[in-house]
Specification:
Layout: H1 11-24, H2 28-40, H3 67-71
Length: 76
């Protein structure tokens, strides 16, 4: 089995891993191994969805609001 060495971990990370391992009843090495295995087995991110194309629909009657009231930009 392949081994890795992780450098420059802060003491707070090592302490948190040690405490987490103790809560789960594992050695710190087993805890880190499980964390890495879980991360490696996550499904890859889905491809981005295509952009939405919105359509404005005019209804009957006059609106009771205007663009400036909503956006505050005076219609740019």
């Amino acid at each position: 089995m392949t081994a890795i060495h992780v450098r420059n971990l802060s003491e707070s990370v090592v302490t948190a891993l040690r405490e987490r391992a103790a809560r789960h009843g594992h050695s710190m090495q087993q805890e880190v191994r499980q964390i890495l295995e879980a991360a490696a087995s996550e499904a890859p991110p889905r491809e981005a969805l295509p952009p939405l194309h919105l359509t404005t629909v005019r209804t009957s009657g006059d609106p009771t609001w205007n663009r400036e009231e909503i956006y505050g930009d005076a219609g740019r």
